[in-house]
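Hi support team,

I submitted a single chain yesterday and got back a structure, but I'm not sure I'm reading the token output correctly. Could someone confirm the output below corresponds to the sequence I sent? I've pasted both exactly as they appear in my results page.

Thanks,
R.
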Amino acid sequence: MITSSSYHHHHQSSSSSSASSSIIIIIIIIIIIIIIISIIIIIIIIIIIIIIIIIIIIIIIIIINIIIIIIIIIIIIIIIIIIIIIIIITRIV
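Hi R., thanks for writing in. Yes, this is the structure output for that exact sequence:
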């Protein structure tokens, strides 16, 4: 009777220690999961920032190109107008 109860008590204590170790394992797993998730989130944020920067650069390049094209067109138009004026003046003269 005594031996069986002591055995039972010993078994209970070992089961409680295993339960505490399993809790520790669960906590470690949770920490690892949190770290992984945070790393993934950071990577996603970095990727989004890079994409935004690339988009901004592309937009800036497009705007600069458009401005250059507009300036070229304006210059061409001015040159054409000057040529027309010169032709008209020479015709009159």
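A quick pointer for reading it: Residues 1-7 have pLDDT under 50 and may be disordered. Let us know if anything else looks off.

Best,
Support desk
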